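Quick one - first record:
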Amino acid sequence: MEKKVLFLAWVNYLSRNALLADYLGASIHFVTYGQRGGNPLLLPLRYIMQSFLTWPILRKEKPDVIVVQVPPLPSAIVAYIYAVFFRARIVIDTHSSTFISFWRRLLWLHRWLSRRALTTIVHNQQIKDIVDEWGCHTTYLGYIPGDYPQGEPYELAQGFNVVATCSFDPDEPILEIVQAAQSVPEVNFYLTGNSSRASEEILASKPDNCQFTGYVSNDAYFGLLRGVDAIMDFTKWENTVLLGAHEAVSLGQPLVVSNSLTLRENFPSGTVHVPNTAEGIAEGVRQMQAEHSRYKKEMLALKEQLQSEFEQQLASLQNRIAEA
């Protein structure tokens, strides 16, 4: 009998989650309460409220399998409690921030839950190695192909254009990107995301060839990503695979990304890997501009390779769920 699958995430909309839920034929529920980045002392209250909001969804949907994103870990606890009482199973979709943020202190709880899960989905080899050591079943699922909209044409300046997909979170070298734009005035830089979080230093450093787009519509966003010559995505964190980089692969757009082990392994071609410094980013953009046609061709080949690998990984996950 076909399993009824539900995808649960205590976050705002995340396209990776939506894509995976669609591939699994799962209903998806983003359960939020309050504002992201609010008073951390209120987090327990937020999680309590999200628990109360989640339980009726589970009781109504009656899933056989719950795929739950962590962090936050309380969402997995709620899913596990439901599974115990109603003979369901859980699949933990673990994101890298579980291992490098506040949640790192609760890895013992993550381990306990993963040992009771049907499988734990991991996004890169470094995290897989850690979870494998726990004696848990793991499913490697890195790149998830996205059939993204064509989008609407985005008005771009004349010349070579690059876009950095940003959220203005602390792990992103925003100031260094802006300073890199100062060093490469012949290239036009676009930074997406919530620029209201930018510091005064960043705002004062922004040159004329650097534009903060702010949050834009989905159509405008993908029109921008399709229209530029290259996509950039950076993080100061290790063991992190970037959503913007996966979007670039799906769109066949060459990449400039941080020079971490995880990103080198996941994007070995069609990509310039740079240190998170103004000089490194500027040099990476110059290299991309000089050899753009080569990187574009390599990215199209990488897209085919990752598509094939994804199909095998997805089949493994689907079989695991079917046998639950």
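second record:
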Amino acid sequence: MKNALTRGGLALATVAALFAAGCGSGEEASYPDRDITFIVPYATGGSTDPLSRQYSELLGRELDTKVVVQNKDGGSATIGTGEVVKAKADGYTIGLSSNSALSYQPTINDNLPYDSPDDYQPIVKLVDLPNVIAVQADSPWKSFDDLLDHAKKNPGKVRVGTSGEKTAPDLTIRELNRKADVDFTPVPFTGGGGEALTALLGGRVDAVSGYGPSLKSQVDAGKLRVIGTFWPKTYKMFPEADSIVQAGYDVQFPAAYYVIAPKGMPANVRKTLVSTSRELVKDPKFEQFIEDNGYLLDVQTEKAVDKELADYRKSFEELNEHLDE
């Protein structure tokens, strides 16, 4: 009788252990079992919005769940980025960020909830995006040389809208001032590239330093003209625009966009997000979207992203020294 009870107790214990283990495995395997929030640290209307929504749509399709995009702008993209970093590390809050938010802002702001990839989890790098300069279509400046000549004759009077103070577009204009010995006045907007574009269309600034995806529709509508690109080659989206780099001003701060998540996610969740992201960027729909919208695909994951962000930080720290001179 005692042996029978012992055997029965062992059997029950074994079943209980298997049940507990099964529940744990099931819980892990069930990710995701609800909507995922995808935070974009810029306002709607900028270059990041279409990229974020395309990625989120495909991620939701691959994971068979809904990915809800939320725009949380401000602080030169540090507010939305910070929300991702501080979120619960369960894989249900992820988001987009940029090289300027992740590598530059920590060099000038000690109050951020992050400093390096030690404080968050890079999931994937998606694209680079060259900076361009656009003016109103009826402006007197038909080329970058026209604008540069006018700015040199009228120091401080040519206002160039940017997507935020010391974002990549803002830093590009500051560096151009140094390299070309000119005095453009950067006008940063807290609402991102969309607000800067609205200001240009409304005549509140003379030009905008921004990105192709947010400018293309206005160029196609005949309202804007892109006169220069900060890229060493012909930029396919605007092949008629001058290469400012080829003109002798080696200023290149392309926006680099990454998907990040909070640090400390369960290993299976991190692996799911990384592997799924790596595969979805190969989707023909995503590749066509990238080409149509002027992005330059540059897929990297985890350690490669860590290294690139560290390299950017070094470059930005060197730029700070020049800006402080």
